[in-house]
Amino acid sequence: MNIAFQKTLELLLIIGIGVFLQKKVAKSDLKGIKVLILSVALPAVIFVALLKIKLESSLLIFPILALSFNLLMLLASKYYISKTLPTKDNARKRTMMLLLPSLAPGLSCFPFIVVYLGDDYLALSALADVGNKIFVLIMLYMLAMHWYNIRSIKDAKTSMKNKLKGLVLSLLNEPINLVMIIALLLLAFGLNLSSLPDFLGNTITSLSTIMAPLVLLFIGMAVRINASEFSLILTLLARRAGVTFLISAVVVLAFPVLASSMILFIIVFPQSSCSFWPFAHMSAIASLEDKDKQTKPTFDIDFAVNVLACSLPFSTLLIIGVFSFSELFVNPFTILISGVSLLAISYTPTLLKVLKKVKSHSDNHIDAMSLNLEAQNNENKD
């Protein structure tokens, strides 16, 4: 059996166990598991991975590329969302414009990169995520505040200054970021994992081993999708994935000397699920709107929750699929075809609606002509 496919079956089995455990685990319990992943297991894995790489200035390209991808997706989402959502549905459009360009690789991508590509690529992923965090924490917040249109310019500046200060503090308080700072400082002084005391190094290594199965169980237990909006959300996520595949294909075609593992990394990292941070920004603005007693909200909070719920399993299955058929996906034309196919699938519902309207209009026109002819015949008889 193909090794990649065998690993895929193992991962899917663990996710399946998580789904089976849904009835035994309350939603409130999932928050504790998520804290354990993001505050203990994932920081340990990233710390170990970072201390295995050689710190070079060329590595700065990864956060720059990630940030460039975010900005490009923001621009693209402005156009492909307008073709899906109704013209007057501005709240949902703004909601999706904040969510779709964002990435949450911690839960949806990092565990699979560790399994399929190894610690070196996990370290590169952590560095790339720095650019993504600048985008989701600062740039998207500024965009959200711009849409909110605070009345007083002075108050807006004060609020923005305080919020940015809070974001910087939250960045420093997040365990993953602290771990990255400590690891990069150690590398700058020429130290690595073996330089640490044995008890500390062994403890961190032991904690890192629980990450992959814990995340997979979490994914299985957390999947609870609202069926009423599933079709629309799936269409938007498929369109997001299609555009992402096309961007990855362009990068791979531009650099034909890339190793197979790097090509897979370029494909799967941008396919990470939507980030929770834009939702946090929307919630903060919703609180301001409650104080101002605004009747028309800037964002659709309930819709955002459903998108986040669908995005994690969608990205997980997509990333597993890419790794399972890695021999096919290292070919840039396969990536290109995948992108075009997903875009075609995503536009199918819109095309069917247009065809239905055209058919209805045509039928009405034929009925009107039939009535006119019948009326004329009756007049002639008279």
TrEMBL record:
Q: What is this protein called?
A: Permease
List all membrane-crossing ranges: 33-53, 59-77, 98-118, 130-150, 171-191, 203-225, 301-323, 329-352
Which species is this UniProt entry from? Answer: Cellulophaga baltica
Q: Which UniProt keywords apply?
A: Membrane, Transmembrane, Transmembrane helix, Transport
